[in-house]
Amino acid sequence: MGTDLHAPLGQGRPPKTKRSWRSYKAVFCGGVGVIGVIALSIYVIREDDGLRRVAANVEQASPKDKSASSKEADGGAHSTQTGTSSERTASGANIERMATGDGNYVTKYTPRDRTGPLVIDAQRMGQDPRVAGQPNLDLVEETEDGKLPIVGADGLRPMDQYARPWSGERGARIAIVISGLGLSQTGSQKAIQQLPAGVTLAFAASGNSLQRWMQEARRKGHEILLQVPFEPFDYPANDPGPTTLLTANSAKDNLSLLHQAMARVTNYTGIVNYQGAHYLSDEKALRPVLQDVAKRGLLFLDDGTSSLSKTGSVSDAVKLPHAFADVVLDGQVQTQAILRKLDELGRIADRNGTAIGIAAAYDESIDAVRQWSEEATQRGIEIVGVSAIVRDKSEP
Description:
Blueprint: H1 21-61, H2 63-74, E1 84-88, E2 93-99, E3 105-111, E4 140-143, E5 146-149, H3 158-161, E6 173-181, H4 185-194, E7 200-204, H5 210-219, E8 224-230, H6 251-262, E9 270-275, H7 277-280, H8 283-295, E10 299-302, H9 311-317, E11 322-324, E12 327-328, H10 335-352, E13 354-360, H11 363-378, E14 382-383, H12 386-394
Parallel strand pairs: 6-7, 6-13, 6-14, 7-8, 8-9, 9-10, 10-11, 12-13
Antiparallel strand pairs: 1-2, 2-3, 4-5
Helix pairs in contact: 4-11, 6-8, 10-11
């Protein structure tokens, strides 16, 4: 069977070849490379840990953080390792960073104690357009007359919540109010669909389907007012409607009529009068009504048609945000005449910084306001919600 099985171990095999110097050199270089990679990795890890420690030391060295840290220490919150730093965010939260021994951080967020007066930023007012047609339930109270506006527990007013946001620029600003919405379906639809969103829409308390129209108007971006009828001098020959506030009524009866009107719709920033030259000139009758409007966080717009109106003095006395319309735009219901009145309104705004115009929801008024507003914007005039001008005039 003459095979290698019977050969002595180690004999009869091919001779081993000697490895050349190049082979050893290659193996050596490869080993050095592996060792170098391992060493570099260790160095990077140590360096990263060092950088984190440097960052922690820099943060602790900040004067602002030192001050905040000492305040936090008074409350007993501190780290036993490398110290604590804290800061406050614009939202009012306290942020506390605690550095651990390995260079990492543990971050703790706690609410800040909100003491002191409430500060409302007018530029943050308004609702998300997606829910603008729905009332803020914190600003509504259920009564026997229906849902009435109130000031929220945090001080937020309906005139702020439902205000149309504006740029905040101090150029010429104009508010245009189109009144009488809800009385005519075609007129209401045309005003909501065709007028620029900056135009304020006033809904008549005696109108129809007010909640539906309101929701559509708010989704389109309009600020809205509620138009309440007041007694004119020639009443009852000129009767604004069954819910008209009368000087002969008791204060209780007029407040009941006011609340019935208020409950017809939600999401409005304030009240504008419909007629009412007699009522607005009677300080005794006017005061309890305007006092109630003020208490509910609303504004009052006087249409400016009566020189005998006591709205200004009474509003100041009860701390009610208010303003007067500067121009009645549609005294002559003709498009060119309304355009001329709008030009007059623009000159007032150029001179005084702000101006308010008011018109009814006639086709001619809507067409003229739409056309003029486009040109005014190109001239640098901003069309704003009426609340922006009322706030500017009423608050220091």
